[in-house]
Amino acid sequence: FRPTSGWEVGRPIRDPHLVTLPTSAPPGEYNLFTGLYDLETLERLDVAENENDLILLELIELSPDPLSAD
């Protein structure tokens, strides 16, 4: 990927990842966050979103397993 200095304002940067959840995770709504890091120091970069330097990507809903015995 290009360094952030090469990013164009308003243009999305796609970096797909597979997120595996434990089978024991209870159904419900979960926030999916990411962060940006300095390539050389691996320190998290400041972002304008919030004080935790996290970027909210998506609110996901985990449904109950239809095959589970309840």
Shape: elongated
**Can you give the mean pLDDT?**
84
* Unreliable runs: none
Tell me the total number of β-strands. Answer: 2
Gyration radius from CA atoms, angstroms? 16 Å
* Tally of helical segments: 0
Gap between N and C termini:
45 Å
Topology order in helix (H) and strand (E) letters: EE
* Oligomer type: single chain
- Helix-strand makeup class: mainly beta
Strand content: 15-25%
* Spatial ordering of strands, largest sheet: 1-2
State the helical fraction: under 10%
Largest beta-sheet characterization: 2 strands, antiparallel
Task: Present the secondary structure layout.
Elements: E1 28-34, E2 55-62
Antiparallel strand pairs: 1-2
Describe this structure in words.
This protein is mainly β and 70 residues long. The protein has a domain at 23-70. Helices cover 0% and strands 21% of the residues. It has no helices and two strands. The chain has strands spanning 28-34, 55-62. It has a two-stranded antiparallel sheet. It is elongated and about 50 Å long. The mean pLDDT is 84.
